[in-house]
Amino acid sequence: MDLQLTGSRIIVTAGASGIGLKIVERFLAEGASIYICDIDRDALEAVKEKHPLLKIGVCDVADRHSVASMFNEAVTSLGGLDCLVNNAGIAGPTGAFHEIDPKDWDRCIEVCLTGQFNCARLAVGHLKQSNNASIINLSSAAGRFGFPNRAPYSAAKWGVVGFTKTLSMELGDFGIRCNAILPGPVDGPRIQAVIREKANAKGQTSEDFTKTWLSLASIKELIDPSQLADLVAFVASPLGRTISGQALNVDGDLQGLM
Ligand code: NAD
């Protein structure tokens, strides 16, 4: 299937590793021009070495000054903008909500939710000039269910869904689409760390905890990040031109979180 993304100009936040990198590599395979920002300079440089065509910049999405200079550089080097993928997010603290450090609450909301606002507000002016404009925000199954001991993360990810649906309504008249992707547990080092912490808290092995967790899904497997990348590419492409305001679940039909 030709996704007609050749030459598309795309910014992916936190694109130096994890799901973001899978998305970047998928877009590269489609012939798109990509700018990635990340907070981790070493990871960015390693990715640039592997994919020399990528444009890169260090940026903390929670820092508005840093986002403003990143956007200037990104849009100038890409020659415009067709798609923003707001992928940056952190796990935040694990613990009962009344026992976590309020600074950890703030940081989680600032990166996972406010970071998307910081980027989207600067993207709009450029996206208005594109004829295939969209914003794709990474939420989570934690943006559809309660997630015990992960209150800031869950609150931020529910916030992402409200933000996405509102942007879709505000930006539709400018031809800009906005969608959220809600992955279940995605295979990779980050989810293994989350599983270890949760298993420890319950006095279980990681293996047993994973099995119990997946028993809550109809399709009992961790999500392959390349599936998310395929979905993001389709939604960003002209083939997805009437898909907007959606909270798209990729979670094996998960029925809850624990
Ligand atoms: P990850 O923890 O692997 O991190 C990916 C990248 O984010 C890293 O390169 C890191 O340096 C960068 N980063 C961290 N803080 C940043 C900041 N403030 N500014 C810019 N870059 C920053 O993440 P991931 O697992 O690939 O998740 C990507 C997105 O998908 C997140 O929004 C996450 O909440 C969401 N998500 C992940 C899972 C999962 O199971 N991994 C499930 C559901 C949703």
Overview of this structure, please?
- The chain is built from 8 helices and 7 strands; from the N terminus they run βαβαβαβαβαβαααβ.
- It is an alpha/beta fold and 258 residues long.
- The protein has 2 domains: 9-184 and 224-247, NAD(P)-binding Rossmann-like Domain (Rossmann fold, 3-Layer(aba) Sandwich), CATH 3.40.50.720; 185-222, no CATH class.
- A 7-stranded parallel β-sheet has the order 3-2-1-4-5-6-7, sandwiched between helices.
- Helix 4 (102-127) packs parallel to helix 5.
- The model has no long low-confidence stretch (mean pLDDT 97).
- It binds nicotinamide-adenine-dinucleotide.
Offer a quick outline of the entry:
With 258 residues, this protein is of the alpha/beta class. 46% of the residues lie in helices and 14% in strands. The chain folds into 2 domains: 200 residues, Rossmann fold (3-Layer(aba) Sandwich); 38 residues, no CATH class.
From the structure above, extract its key features.
single chain; alpha/beta; Rossmann fold; binds nicotinamide-adenine-dinucleotide; 2 domains
Element layout with pairings:
Blueprint: E1 9-13, H1 18-29, E2 33-38, H2 41-50, E3 55-58, H3 64-78, E4 83-86, H4 102-127, E5 133-138, H5 151-171, E6 176-183, H6 189-202, H7 206-214, H8 225-236, E7 247-250
Parallel strand pairs: 1-2, 1-4, 2-3, 4-5, 5-6, 6-7
Helix pairs in contact: 1-8, 3-4, 4-5, 6-7
Bound molecules: nicotinamide-adenine-dinucleotide.
Nicotinamide-adenine-dinucleotide binds at residues 13-14, 16-20, 38-40, 43, 59-62, 87-90, 111, 138, 140, 183, 185-186, 188, 190-191.
